[in-house]
Design a protein that fits this description.
Blueprint (H helix, E strand, L loop, with lengths): L3 H11 L4 H8 L3 H8 L9 H15 L3 H11 L2 H18 L6 H27 L5 E5 L4 E3 L3 E8 L3 E5 L2 E3 L6 E7 L3 E11 L6 E10 L9 H5 L3 E7 L4 E7 L2 E8 L3 E7 L2 E6 L5 E5 L2 E3 L2 E2 L6 E8 L2 E4 L1
Parallel strand pairs: 2-8
Antiparallel strand pairs: 1-3, 3-6, 4-5, 4-7, 7-8, 9-12, 9-14, 10-11, 10-13, 13-17, 14-15, 16-17, 17-18
Helix pairs in contact: 1-4, 4-5
Pfam families: Glucodextran_B, HTH_25, RodZ_C
Keywords: Membrane, Transmembrane, Transmembrane helix
InterPro entries: Bact_Cytoskel_RodZ (IPR050400), Ig-like_fold (IPR013783), Lambda_DNA-bd_dom_sf (IPR010982), RodZ-like_C (IPR025194)
Length: about 325
C-alpha cells in the first residue's frame, strides 16, 4: 500500500525540488518534511501537527489535500493508539505528583521551626563551652617606648569581664576596653585576661612585654649627633598588611601587622621596606613622611633609604 509520504516524495522529485527549497517556501522545518516522507509520524508530538504539515505540503505540490489526508489516515491507523498511550503515560506521571496541601505546608513549617530551635540551642551550648575571644589592638608585643605609660586597647565578647594585671577593666556594650598602664624602667609584663561571666572556668589570657627606656634631657651628646641617627616610624592604618623591614642589615619586622599599630626604630645607615598594602602603610623618618612607590597591578610597595653625606636619599 502506498503511503502519503511516498506520494509527496515522488511528486516533489518529479518537480525537481529539494527539501531545502520546500522548507523555505512552506516554512516547515526540513526535519519535519523528512519525517513525513519517511512515514516517521511517531516523532511528532501530536497528530494535529502531522495533519497540518501534510495539508500544507500537499497544497504546495499541487496534490489533492483531502485525498492525501485519507491515505495518511488509512496507512497510519496505529497513530491513534500512539496518542492514547502517550496520554496514559502523562496521566501516570501526574498521578505520582504530590499536591501541596495546607497540612503538608504546616508540617514543613513545624520541621523548619524545630530544626531552627535545635540549631540555636546547639550554638548557645557551643558558645557556653568555648573560651571568650580576646583581641589586643595595641600595643604590640615587645613594644618599645620612651614614655612612662602605655594605653592597652582591645575587645572581647560583650558577656565577658576583663582584667589587666589582675585589676578589673570596664568594657562597653560591644566588648571594647581601654586602660592606661603605668610603666617601670626596663621590661614590663602586661597580662590581659577575659573571663566569661556565665562560666568563670572559661577564660582567655594574653601577655605582652613592653620595654620602657628612660631618656635624660642631656642624653644627646655631640658624639651621638656625629653618628647621624634617624628616627624611623612605621604605622599601619585601616587594613592589615604584610611588612618586611630591614634596618642596618638587620631584619626588624617580617610579619602581618594589624591595623592601627605603630613601631619605632633607629636608623644609622640604610633601610629597606616592603609592604603588601601601600595604602595602609605609612613610613616617617624624623617626622617626615616618605612616599612609598608601588605596583599598580599588585599594590605591593618597596623603598630603600640610605644616609649619605648630603643627607637621606630614598629610592
Amino acid at each position: 500500500m502506498i503511503t502519503a509520504g511516498e506520494v509527496l516524495k515522488n511528486k516533489r522529485e518529479s518537480l525537481g525540488k529539494d527539501l531545502n527549497t520546500v522548507s523555505v517556501d512552506t516554512k516547515i522545518q526540513k526535519r519535519f518534511l523528512e519525517y513525513i516522507e519517511n512515514n516517521q509520524y511517531e516523532k511528532f508530538d501530536s497528530e494535529v501537527f502531522v495533519s497540518g504539515f501534510i495539508k500544507i505540503y500537499s497544497k504546495y505540490l499541487g496534490l489533492d489535500v483531502e485525498k492525501l489526508l485519507a491515505i495518511y489516515r488509512r496507512s497510519n491507523l496505529k497513530n491513534g493508539k500512539r496518542e492514547e498511550e502517550k496520554k496514559n503515560v502523562i496521566q501516570r506521571k501526574n498521578s505520582f505528583k504530590i499536591g501541596i496541601t495546607p497540612q503538608i505546608f504546616a508540617i514543613v513549617l513545624l520541621v523548619v521551626f524545630f530544626l531552627s530551635v535545635v540549631g540555636y540551642i546547639g550554638y548557645q551550648i557551643f558558645k557556653f563551652q568555648t573560651p571568650p575571644q580576646l583581641t589586643i589592638v595595641e600595643p604590640l608585643d615587645e613594644h618599645r617606648t620612651e614614655e612612662n605609660f602605655v594605653i592597652v586597647k582591645g575587645n572581647t565578647e560583650s558577656t565577658s569581664s576583663v582584667t589587666i594585671n589582675g585589676e578589673p577593666v570596664e568594657t562597653d556594650s560591644l566588648g571594647y576596653f581601654e586602660k592606661e598602664i603605668e610603666l617601670k624602667e626596663g621590661v614590663n609584663t602586661i597580662s590581659i585576661t577575659s573571663k566569661k561571666n556565665s562560666n568563670n572556668q572559661l577564660e582567655t589570657t594574653k601577655t605582652l612585654k613592653v620595654l620602657y627606656v628612660v631618656q635624660a634631657d642631656d642624653e644627646i651628646t655631640e658624639q651621638e649627633e656625629a653618628t647621624n641617627e634617624y628616627k624611623v616610624e612605621l604605622k599601619i592604618s585601616n587594613a592589615a598588611s604584610w611588612i618586611k623591614l630591614d634596618i642596618d642589615g638587620v631584619n626588624k619586622v617580617s610579619q602581618i601587622l594589624d591595623p592601627n599599630t605603630q613601631q619605632e626604630f633607629t636608623l644609622e645607615r640604610e633601610l629597606t621596606l616592603v609592604t603588601g598594602k601601600v595604602q595602609s602603610t605609612q613610613l616617617l623618618i624624623n617626622g617626615e613622611e616618605i612616599k612609598i612607590s608601588s605596583s599598580q597591578n599588585t599594590g605591593v610597595g618597596q623603598i630603600t633609604c640610605k644616609i649619605q653625606n648630603t643627607g637621606l636619599e630614598c629610592i
